[in-house]
Amino acid sequence: MHESAFQIFINALLANNFVLAMFLGLCPFLGVSGRLDTAFPMGVATTFVMLVASLCAYGLNLLLSAFHLEFLRLISYIVIIASAVQLVEMVLKKYSPKLFRALGIYLPLITTNCAVLGVALFQTAREYDFVQSVTFSVGGGAGFTLALVLMASVRERLTLSNVPDLAQGTALSLMLAGILSLSFMGFAGLGG
Amino acid sequence: MNPSTAVTWDEFMEGVWRQNPVFVMVLGMCPTLAVTVSVVNALSMGVSTMLVLIASCGLVSMMRKITPKEVRIAVYIVIIATFVTVVDYAIQAISLTLYDALGAFIQLIVVNCIILGRAEAHAAKNPPLPAMINAAGMGVGFTIGLLALGTVREVLGAGTLFGVTLFGVGFQPWVIMVLPPGGFFVLGAWLLFFSWLERRKLRRRQAKLVEATQNA
User: Fold this and answer.
1) A109: which chain B residues are within 8 Å (Cβ-Cβ)?
2) Chain A closest CA to B215's CA: distance in Å?
3) Most buried by CB count within 10 Å: which residue of A5, A73, A74, A149?
4) Interface residue B27 vs chain A (CB under 8 A)
5) Do A152 and A22 contact (CB within 8 A), yes or no?
6) Phi and psi at residue A153, in whole multiples of 5°?
7) H or E segment at B161?
8) A74 lies in a domain?
9) What is the rounded distance in angstroms from the CA atom of residue A109 to the CA atom of residue B79?
10) Is residue A168 part of a domain?
11) Which residues of A touch B26 (CB under 8 A)?
């Protein structure tokens, strides 16, 4: 498989957007997308964790393959991701306590964000090399941030409009996500 | 019926209906939407998740007294990851086509919020048997949710059910339903349907109450 780094980036960002086309990381997507000023930092934090997780997973996979311990892959990936999240949490708590409080429970929940584990698993399954893995994780993270920011902007607008009571809440968010996903399908084939 | 069986039955039904993970709590969305393009996929995903859920809740519950509070989440995740690895290899051995269809989503069961949520909220505080029964209820509820989505999407999007063609040749499949946007739309529609049911029930009860007060 020889995809150029640019193709991988565009694919992960738009054509195969993690949230809207591959259904990864839906919990924070529905949970934190209420306001724009928490959505963007959340996206950036997730992107950072994805990058760290991708780098570690790449090294770890080499190590596990060398010792023929592939069955430990899943367990070791999840431990690495949990540590990376802990790191981000400590840094945020020290440098921006306000943001730390705003993100609340969703910050430790990055550990159970499928998008992060998804990056690690997909790059292993597709046998990406080092540069490809890094571009894949950054592209995926940027795509996640993009989806989150788009969703948050739409939902901020929506708080002012008149919506039937029945559709209030999650059902409405899902319909919105469906429409966004429909428009992202227009990017299909862009990455070649 | 003696009280202990009544309690466990209630515990089982909690996950199936009242606290249904898909429709009421809206947890574990990623596998729910990603694999429900066909009924077979939905069913196998539901069953694998249920197995992991029961096994890991049982083990978490057995270890609840020796697990230090500070590292409990890490312990839960390692337990869950172990069982997911087992299920992953089992599916690979049973059916390779199914394994390819579900793809990375079997391994992604690890980060399914339902399992961690159950481990933290229920299994960590209860003895093994009730914990496993509760987990089984949740698993059944999750499977029902997946089937509800999978049926609608397969019938509308491909015109088949369990791979059997339902309509004549004149049927034009509604392709969007098996594509990603369809997942969001169908789940949204189901949620709307359930909130409409809830609303109607509430209104009936109020009407009855008004009638009763007028008669009195």
Assistant:
1) 113
2) 31
3) A74
4) yes
5) no
6) -65, -40
7) strand B160-161
8) yes
9) 18
10) yes
11) 30, 170
Q: Which of B184, B191, B199 sits opposite A177 (nearest CB)?
A: B184
- What total number of domains does chain A contain? 1
CA separation for the pair A178, A125 (Å, rounded)? 28
**Does the residue A60 lie in any domain?**
yes
Distance CA A140, CA B171 (A): 38
Contact A111 B89 (CB under 8 A): no
For A171, which of B116, B182, B191 is closest by C-beta distance? B191
The end-to-end CA distance of chain B, in Å, is: 37
* Helices of type H across chain B: 3-13, 29-35, 39-62, 72-94, 96-102, 113-121, 128-158, 180-215
Instruction: Kindly report the length of chain B.
Output: 216
Which value does ipTM take for this structure? 0.81
Q: Quickly state the pLDDT bin for B56 (edges 50, 70, 90).
A: very high
Token pair 């959340």 in the structure block, residue: A42
Helix axes B39-62, B113-121, angle to 10 degrees: 30
Q: Please give the C-alpha separations between residue B146 and each of A140, A141, B73, in angstroms, as whole numbers.
A: 26, 28, 27
- The tally of CA atoms less than 13 A away on the side-chain side of residue A49 is 37
Distances (CA, A) of A111 to A81, A87, A144: 6, 11, 15
Residue-wise pLDDT for B97-107, tens only, equals 888 888 778 88
pTM for the full model? 0.83
Query: Is A175 in the B-facing interface, judged by CB distances under 8 Å?
Result: yes
Q: What is the pLDDT of residue B3?
A: 45
pLDDT, tens only, A60-77: 888 888 888 878 888 888
| A189 in any annotated domain | no
Q: Could you tell me the residue range of the domain that residue A24 belongs to?
A: 5-182
Answer for the pair B58, B132: CB distance below 8 angstroms, yes or no: yes
Residues of chain B with Cβ-Cβ distance to A80 below 8 Å are none
Q: For chain A, say whether B78 makes contact (Cβ under 8 Å).
A: yes
Name every residue whose Cβ is closer than 8 Å to that of residue A79 and which is 6 or more positions away in sequence: B74, B77, B78
